[in-house]
Specification:
The structure holds two protein chains of two kinds. Chain A is mostly helical. Chain A has eight helices and no strands. In chain A, helix 1 (about 5-15) crosses helix 3, helix 2 (about 20-30) crosses helix 3 (about 35-50) and helix 4 packs antiparallel against helix 5. By secondary structure, chain B is mostly beta strands. Chain B is built from one helix and 22 strands. Chain B has one helix spanning about 1-20, and strands at about 20-30, 35-50, 55-65, 70-75, 80-85, 95-100, 105-115, 115-120, 125-130, 135, 140-145, 150-165, 170-185, 190-200, 205-225, 230, 240-245, 250, 260, 265-275, 280-285, 290-295. A seven-stranded parallel barrel of chain B has the order 2-7-9-11-12-10-8. In chain B, strand 4 (about 70-75) and strand 5 (about 80-85) form a beta hairpin. The longest helix of chain B is centred in the first third of the chain and has 18 residues, at about 1-20. The N and C termini of chain B lie far apart (about 65 Å). The chains are: A mainly alpha, B mainly beta.
Chain lengths: ~220, ~300
């Protein structure tokens, strides 16, 4: 193999999903190519770290920051590396992990025996019956929103302006709904419908930010 | 003579555009349930996907001259990845693509700008379009469709179905066992059915449902300020539970009226039509709620 393998091939090499003949070629190349070897090691380290994550966790506030810093720390040193790993899929993955943690937390906090496995269901756990009971859940939504917002802001310049405009417009709509529901809940703290609607709006915000953080960069 | 000049001018105008395009055709043998991924995010793309009863994949169409088309199959045809990339936005001529895949395949499509139309895929679809519309026709096992501001239109049913937009309209004519339709400001329409469990969530988008719910099934609608119109199919017996914080409730199904809630805030209505154990739950903050018979349904 005279040319560098692409990122997908190196990822599949680490995953062990390359066909035998292609695997042999890529391994042979990687053994003699310093940048590709470095990329393979970075992917292996990332996969290793991902595997070490628990399947269900109550996300501590610093979780997102730690994952983000780990991703940043794994960036290639030389900008001239011929196979520079793109950072946005990693950040998106990290953001997704943060969201999954928060969603898992919400399910646990709401007293559901088990979080959804690979596919969420439409069945919902009971809403917290008061503002006080909702407060810890809201704190975790806010944490997830903050992490995802940071990820989006970092990539803002890479994204299509019209898409950013759509995202920001939708976020403003959701924020207005959250503010309205929150004010109402402050005046009627035992209103379970309000907590459910507030949770629904937060869920929309997290989902939208998660999707925005996964958007591909414009070319 | 004048016609000749016009024809020559048209030819000269047309030639550069044609010269910037090139044809693409790739054919692969794949397994009937192959996982197929297509990514085309860097140029305007119109994509048509057709599920067919053959163990092969055909990827064809035309792309801009600067576009790079890459990919292939792996794992003895159990997986395929296809990419269309254009190095710079300036060189990004639109792509028009057609993808034929085994009907039972698992299809994963990610598009930047452009419309996707998928028919005849009975396995699983995960389609994500940043700017453009998604149209899916046919029954399948799993469907996840996401668009940022384009419309999502689905005609068919899926065991598991999710559709999400920010500003686009979602229209599901059909149903599924587990259905979730989510929009921020776009309207959501659910027609036909049957659905076993369905959940619709909007922030400001209006919601209209006129779908049969299976016996013992559940339909939940949450909207902050969208107008919610529930049209009861003629043969469905349902229990309907409506709660609104600052909205209004108009009930044209029964004589029951919405009453102030326990804390004297908002309105609550619980009403039963026939039997069947179907449960309809509607919650809004300030969106008006209308319950009416679906007269147009047969």
């Amino acid at each position: 193999m005279t040319t560098h393998p692409n990122d997908a091939q190196l990822n599949e090499l680490v995953d062990g999903t390359l066909p035998p003949d292609e695997r042999e070629q890529v391994e042979r190349h990687a053994a003699e190519c310093v940048p590709c070897t470095a990329t393979v090691r970075r992917i292996e380290a990332l996969v290793g770290r991902a595997r070490s994550l628990p399947r269900e966790v109550t996300a501590p506030p610093e979780a997102w920051v730690a994952v983000r810093d780990a991703v940043r720390g794994s960036e290639p040193v030389g900008a001239g590396s011929p196979r520079r790993v793109q950072r946005w899929p990693m950040l998106a993955a990290a953001a997704a992990i943060a969201v999954a943690s928060v969603v898992g937390t919400l399910w646990l906090t709401n007293g559901t025996s088990a979080p959804p496995a690979t596919r969420s269901t439409t069945t919902q756990s009971p809403a917290p019956a008061s503002l006080a009971a909702f407060a810890p859940i809201e704190a975790r939504y806010v944490l997830a929103v903050s992490a995802l917002r940071e990820s989006l802001d970092e990539r803002r310049e890479q994204l299509d302006p019209s898409t950013i405009e759509t995202v920001e417009r939708s976020l403003a709509t959701i924020d207005a709904a959250i503010a309205e529901a929150r004010d109402a809940l402050a005046n009627d703290p035992a209103n379970a419908t309000l907590t459910r609607l507030l949770a629904s709006s937060y869920e929309q915000k997290v989902t939208l930010l998660r999707r925005a953080s996964e958007l591909p960069p414009r070319s | 003579m004048r016609q000749l000049i016009v024809l020559c001018a048209l030819f000269l105008l047309a030639t550069p555009a044609d010269a910037q395009r090139r044809a693409v055709e790739r054919r692969y043998a794949v397994t009937p349930t192959a996982s197929i991924r297509l990514t085309a995010v860097s140029q305007q793309t119109t994509l048509r996907v057709i599920g067919w009863d053959r163990d092969s994949l055909v990827f064809s169409g035309d792309v801009g001259a600067a576009a790079r088309v890459d990919g292939g199959v792996a794992g003895g045809g159990s997986g395929a990845k296809l990419f269309v990339e254009t190095p710079s936005a300036n060189a990004a001529a639109p792509a028009q693509l057609e993808l034929r895949v085994p009907a039972q395949s698992r299809l994963w499509v990610k598009l930047g700008a452009g419309d996707v139309e998928i028919t005849g895929v009975r396995g699983a679809i995960d389609v994500n379009v940043v700017s453009g519309a998604v149209t899916i026709t046919g029954d399948l096992r799993e469907l996840n469709a996401e668009a940022m501001d384009g419309a999502i239109t689905i005609a068919g049913r899926a065991d598991w179905l999710r559709a999400k937009t920010a500003g686009g309209t979602i229209t599901l004519t059909g149903g599924g066992d587990d259905v979730g339709l989510t929009s921020v400001s776009g309207a959501v329409h659910l027609r036909g059915g049957p659905v076993a469990r369905a959940r619709i969530e909007t922030v400001t988008g209006d919601v209209t449902t006129a779908a049969t719910v299976e016996r013992g099934g559940q339909l939940t609608i949450d909207s902050h300020s969208g107008r919610v119109e529930y049209r009861l199919p003629p043969k469905d017996g349902v229990y309907i539970d409506v709660t609104t914080v600052n909205g209004t409730v108009a009930n044209r199904l029964t004589d029951d009226r919405a009453l102030p809630g326990l804390s004297a805030r908002g309105l609550e209505l619980g009403t039963t039509v026939g039997s069947g154990g179907r449960s309809i739950t509607i919650r809004t903050f300030k969106g008006p709620v209308l319950l009416v018979p679906d007269i147009g349904a047969k």
